[in-house]
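Appendix C reproduces, verbatim, an entry submitted by the partner laboratory led by Prof. M.T., so that reviewers can inspect both the input and the predicted structure.
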Amino acid sequence: MALEFPWWLRLAHAFNLLFMLLLIRSGIGIVGAHPRFYWNDDAIPGTEWLRTGDEPRSTDIEKERIGEDSNEEQPTAAETGAEPEEVADGGVSTEITENSSTEDGSRGRTSRRQAKKKDGIWTAEDEADPYSSWLALPGEDNLGLSRHWHFWGAAGWLLTGVLYVAVLIGTGQWDRFVPTSWSIFPRALDAFVAYAQLQIPETTGYNALQQLAYFSVLFILSPLMIVTGFFQAPAMRAHFPNWFSHIRQRARSIHFLGMIAFVVFIVVHVSLVVAHGFGEQMAKILLGSAEASQPLALALTAVWIGGVVAILVIGDRASLKRPMKTKKLLEVGLDSLIKSVFHHHTDIVNEETEQQTPSEFARVNGKPPRNNKYRQHAAENFENWTLTVDGFVENELELSLEDLQNLPRQSQTTRHDCIQGWTYVAQWGGVPVKEIIARCNPAEEAEWVVFHTLDEKWESPDVEGYYPTFDTQMCSCEQTL
């Protein structure tokens, strides 16, 4: 009996291709930020089971040089005509090359890593190895946008999958994928042998090997990708530390292997569609019957594939030419969705009860600011630096470094989850933000705390000042330092 291809199955197939390509290409962009994979959350350089990209760099740091003025402009290899040289002390750094301004006013840039003799501070950014926009979405060192595209792709893919499985069960067609007899395994072996001999197994529906493959992808691989994706969220570890405090790197590794499995499945799947007769198979997929017009099916295939490619190209170009506008557009609905899924808890669990052991290696995340104001404070050992607290507060504060050191202090052992993908456990110490909040007495309408820093965003040299924001409820928590 021939298989039916109802409209809902065909529609799900069409949308699934788009969302899968969004997920895979944006996933490659995310991997490029830290193309190294570990089985433990210490993520010590050299212990990765897989590393892609360029040659490994030394992570040795000359600590006595960190306080030096290492930000003076140095001639690049391109300017001097010299070849980039390898520096044994980890002196390979990221040089940002500004291109022409993008259409929305932000600066285009490329990232190339060259040796600078004077600036020898190794940072985690030196491990990044961004992929081309031909492969990644959007590529070219745009981790934030890759994550936005990935979340949207995941939302669309998950919605499509849930509706597909629901209709599959509701219409009683689940048995087209779910094996009902152990005899499927020897029959699958026979089908494999036939394919290996470049023969097409004779069957009226899916052969046993196809059925096993579709069942594995639909009911094993897909749930595994969903679960490992959720397990990487810092919110899961924050709310359930006894379950998720030591498995993020394992989840990340399995998630990556799952992506490879999906790519292999897609390649094999498309190859078998061609082998079984491309025109006939596309007539089934798009028109619902092998008896339908094959020329029409091929024309619709061209429109379908062309439409998906067009969406991907538009996404690439918009992300690279107008990154801020694209980011804001992708955030529509995304922020509230992520908040509803991950941020509905306000309890902070004390992770020290787990007796976590600090990692042997902690990555240096970033370099000292390059502005004159910071350099002046550093030269004065920050004696004249002050923390100003103003805005919607009853008592404005001006706290010196000594004032902060005299406030109550606490320490805690917590795992740091970097957006790049690496982790490590460390003991953190400082003044609880709630101590400062108690002294400034914020107004009831104050909802956010904005930290204006001396740092600048290295990605956009023309943007002065970096500031993170946190809601007042989070800042009032016990472990917010």
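The first helix runs from residue 7 to 33. Additional entries are available on request from the coordinating office.
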